[in-house]
Amino acid sequence: MAWTKAKTTIAVAAGGFLLAGIIAMPMWSRDSQERAQAVTDRLIRKQIATPLALTNNYNSGVNGPVPSGLHVFNNVPLQIDGAMYLWGSGGGADYPKKIRDIPLSEIFETLYLYHGSYYGSPPGTPVCDVVFRYVDDTSVTNRLFYETDILDWYAPGGTRVKGPSGTNSKVAWIGQLTTGNGGIQQLRLCMTAIENPKPTVKVWSIDLYSCESRTVLYIMAMTTGKADLMEDATPTDERER
User: Fold this and answer.
1) Closest Cα to residue 205, out of 98, 119, 121?
2) Nearest 5 degrees, angle CA 239-CA 214-CA 221?
3) Which pTM does this prediction carry?
4) pLDDT (tens digit, 9 = 90+) per residue, 79-132?
5) In this structure, which long-range contacts are made by residues 232-237, counting pairs with CB atoms below 8 Å and at least 24 apart in sequence?
6) Which helix (H) or strand (E) holds 36?
7) Element (H, E) at 40
8) Domain locations along the chain
9) What is the rounded end-to-end Cα distance, in angstroms, of the chain?
């Protein structure tokens, strides 16, 4: 789920977000990270949610205006230390079409994905398959679609930032850039809740497969947890006021 927009002022490369002619607004503080740590510690202790360590699976860093480190968006704690990019025909020719064997070894009700994309596709276009591989040698494939789940991180103009149309996906973070000519570009990153159809069986690992659409998807964090953590949540709005 994304809106097509010319990327005249930003490029995304394997080293992270490379900004050209753009001034990034400061969007988070040490205090917010300390609050996120306290909330995360409580959720882990109560076995409500656990952020995954994805350092060995990232193929890009995180730079520019997007948050990094530990944050809580949509009531879900996230450890954001990089990004896993998947190939799309719109750009990023060097990105892989699949990322396999993301280690997990957990029992959980829902997997929460924090993600963004660039280059739009027609609504309903398959963008990514997320495969749960269980210890009993079975697997389940979960498909994410453009506009239903996935949106371009460049949001249309205006003060209201539109979110995904699907019931399991929401905007998680809202920010903005001041462009070199003084204009404002609204930004958004989204979150999708994927229900585990076998919540009593341990998931050994997760695979990601590009559906080879035009859209380049990047997943920045994954968290396992209870169902419905995103219910009634509002996105973290870090635009300058």
Assistant:
1) 98
2) 50
3) 0.86
4) 999 999 999 999 877 899 999 999 999 999 999 999 999 999 999 999 999 999
5) 233/73, 233/74, 233/75, 233/76, 233/170, 234/74, 235/73, 235/74, 235/161, 235/163, 235/170, 235/171, 235/172, 235/173, 235/174, 235/188, 236/71, 236/73, 236/172, 236/173, 236/174, 237/174
6) helix 30-45
7) helix 30-45
8) 10-230
9) 27
